[in-house]
Design a protein that fits this description.
The protein is α/β, with parallel strands linked by helices. The protein has five helices and nine strands, in the order H-E-E-H-E-E-E-E-H-E-H-H-E-E. Strand 2 (52-55), helix 2 (58-68) and strand 3 (74-77) form a beta-alpha-beta unit.
Amino acid sequence: MVKQFEIPQSVVQDVYTGRSTPDVYSPYMKAIHDQHVIAVNVAYRIGSWIDVMFFGDDSTWKEEKEELIKFKGLRVTCATGCDDDTRLKFLKRDQRKRTGITTNPSMLAWNSNSGAAAINLAVHFGVKRIILFGFDMQLDEGQNQHWHKFYKTKITEVGTSFRRHLTNFPQIRSDLDALKIQVLNANPDSAIKYFEKVNFKDIKL
């Protein structure tokens, strides 16, 4: 995401260290302000132009509730501890289809990570093309992640989680192909190898 939107490294570092909040990214992302955008986890903090915030872990709601209830867009989750909160749109995790894409509109294939589940959510919205931003699925050269201040997970655990998450993408790709839904990965450095990688500037929105 940083490279594709040409966000200066100094701005990224300020967010990473907590000197700035994620909304400083918003001006660099004007090209998608008028598109339908699903933000995963704390990415909703980037701007009020985001349509949907999705999360799949109970901890996100516990840690973000105070800020998240101010979010004016749709709040969607498959977190098992949030099924009775009326401030959230809750979709069950499909136990018969735990990986890939479920076509049951009241459920999501969890795929063991929120980003992949958000792809399934986009499918339920009826899209024919999905563009991924910020799906690095790996740490940077300094073994950091850009949202470090906002996530409590230890960096050593993050790397292990990424490797586990990547195992679900072949099935996701297969199911999307069957549904004739195109996915473009707008991050040439992404560890996800199963979707066409593109430069955002070359995409016709």
